[in-house]
Specification:
Layout lengths: L1 H18 E12 L24 H4 L10 H13 L3 E2 L2 E2 L2 E4 L9 E4 L6 E9 L8 E13 L3 E4 L6 E4 L6 E7 L6 H18 L11 E11 L9 E4 L4 H20 L9 E6 L4 E7 L9 E2 L6 E2 L2 H10 L4 H10 L4 H9 L1 H12 L4 H19 L10 H12 L5 H14 L3 H7 L8 H14 L1 H8 L6 H11 L6 H13 L3
The protein binds zinc ion.
EC number: 6.3.5.-
GO molecular function: ATP binding; glutaminyl-tRNA synthase (glutamine-hydrolyzing) activity
GO biological process, one term: mitochondrial translation
Length: about 500
């Protein structure tokens, strides 16, 4: 495995930057989180017992008629608008006909020549560790369709069973323009799409459950050539990381063939990404384009949108990731902060709610990204499961800024709030944590520490001035962490430097 992968990466490093260009397009299927399926009233829940959620419509029994779930249209319009697409005010469903054991009707209800949304774009911020920068990727089309069932194969290979629970579950297929040039761009595009459907609430976007599935088309051409190279489809991409690696592997495989004059060995085919061996392998060769004999679905009426309907949805769209990132950027936050906060809808909501209580953006960002993020990671919690509320975080930051408590005490309170909840005011009162800012009181503590450490005082006065930190630490200890650090150091310096 290592040899193969290393060989190709080596070839990639040598060749790609100067001679070749990769062209990548992505087809994404998003499973909609509607309560019921697209054309019947069966519910769908991932992982339920096989064939426990089926009816004559989704089993494709003769004579059963589909009735469209209006939520599917609503979700399609939402996503179409969020992807900056033009909407088709008059579209329709079509039958895409093919035979497969998990497709009992013998056709899939889809949209063919008139998709509900087309010609949009998606803006992405590439993380700094991958070079940074803002990219815009074109969206060719978004259309509605239904999912098929699932085949389950016995391990000994001589028995296959079909589970139709998933048959008829609504999907949106999003087809991108071939605008990506490497694995990172492609995986960042897919991650942004996942964020978008989560922000919109149209899908849970979970790749592991198959709620977000990406098929990637990769081709390579010599730089300067306008004609596309032969494209290869890569499937079985279960995470953004594997997507990025699979694409980079596929690019280097094709570049190697090109550079050896063997580009005729790049054929139109579907390849599977093998996570174990970190490479793509041939799954099936494409024997020309399949003829699906599309025709308009006779059992469903046209999909007509009114301007009022579209406007109502437009007016209810939440703030989308791209808008959020630009807003955070204008607050003066760095791109790393911006991406961390905006990437997760729930973290962004927590951040915004804390700001709404009057806290300073940069300070809130720091607390969330450092101690709060570390706590969530250690305890395997999401921001929705921690006991700390935005109100209390704002109160805590305000208490430190206002000098009521020291930063050190602030951290202690934070961890108590994260784990147990409660209010900042109560904790300060109950534990007597108010910062000591009375110079007389601090002076007493300084005197005590100086009197108890004569040897160190002598060393300090003999020139070992870095001992100041030691004294400051001792005084802080005496104050149980409550002394105002600025005042403490000021008084300490005066005392240490006076000759008496
Ligand atoms: Zn059904």
């Amino acid at each position: 495995m290592a040899y193969n992968a290393l060989y190709f990466i080596f070839a990639l490093l040598l060749k790609i930057p100067k001679d070749y260009e990769a062209v990548i397009g992505i087809e994404t299927h998003v499973q909609l989180s509607t309560l019921t399926k697209a054309f019947c009233s069966c519910p769908y829940s991932y992982g339920s017992f096989p064939n426990s959620s089926i009816c004559p419509v989704c089993m494709g029994l003769p004579g059963a008629l589909p009735v469209l779930n209006s939520k599917v249209i609503e979700f399609a319009v939402k996503l179409g608008l969020a992807l900056n697409c033009n909407l088709a005010f008059n579209s329709k469903f079509d039958r895409k006909q093919y035979f497969y054991p998990d497709l009992p009707k013998g056709y899939q209800i889809s949209q063919f020549d008139v998709p509900i949304a087309a010609a949009g774009f998606l803006d992405v911020d590439i993380p700094l560790e991958f070079g940074g920068g803002h990219k815009r990727f074109g969206i060719t089309r978004v259309h509605m369709e239904e999912d098929a069932g699932k085949l389950m194969h016995a391990e000994n290979g001589n028995l296959s069973q079909v589970d139709l629970n998933r048959a008829g579950v609504p999907l949106l297929e999003i087809v991108s323009e071939p605008d990506m040039r490497n694995g990172i761009e492609a995986s960042e595009y897919a991650a942004e799409l996942q964020r978008l459907v989560r922000y919109l609430g149209v899908s849970n976007g979970n790749m592991q459950e198959g709620s977000l599935r990406c098929d990637v088309n990769v081709s390579v051409r010599p730089i300067g050539q306008s004609k596309f190279g032969t494209k290869v489809e890569v499937k079985n991409l279960n995470s953004f990381a594997s997507m990025s690696r699979a694409i980079d592997f596929e690019i280097s495989r094709q570049v190697l063939l090109h550079s050896q004059g063997q580009e005729d060995q790049i054929v139109q085919e579907t390849r599977l990404w093998e996570e174990g061996s970190q490479r793509t392998i041939t799954m099936r060769k494409k024997e020309g384009l399949a003829d699906y004999r599309y025709f308009p679905e006779p059992d469903l009426p046209s999909v007509i949108l009114s301007q009022e309907y579209v406007d109502a949805i437009q007016n209810c769209l939440p703030e989308l990731p791209e808008e959020k990132r630009r807003r955070y950027e204008k607050m003066g936050l760095g791109m790393q902060d911006v991406l961390f906060l905006a990437n997760d809808k729930n973290i962004a909501e927590f951040f915004d709610a804390t700001l709404a209580k009057g806290a300073d953006a940069k300070l809130v960002a720091n607390w969330i990204m450092s101690d709060i993020a570390a706590f969530m990671k250690n305890e395997k919690l999401t921001i929705n499961n921690i006991k700390l509320t935005p109100e209390e975080l704002s109160e805590l930051i305000g208490s430190i800024k206002g000098g009521i408590i020291s930063g050190k005490i602030g951290k202690e309170i934070l961890f108590e709030l994260l784990a147990k909840g409660g209010s900042v005011k109560e904790l300060i009162e109950k534990k007597d944590l108010v910062q000591i800012a009375d110079p007389v009181e601090i002076e007493k503590m300084v005197d005590k520490v100086i009197a108890e450490n004569p040897k160190q005082v002598e060393q300090y006065r003999g020139g070992k001035t870095k001992l100041q930190g030691f004294f400051a630490g001792q005084v802080m200890k005496v104050s149980k962490g409550k002394a105002n650090p600025g005042l403490l150091n000021k008084i300490l310096l005066v005392k240490l430097n006076s000759k008496s």
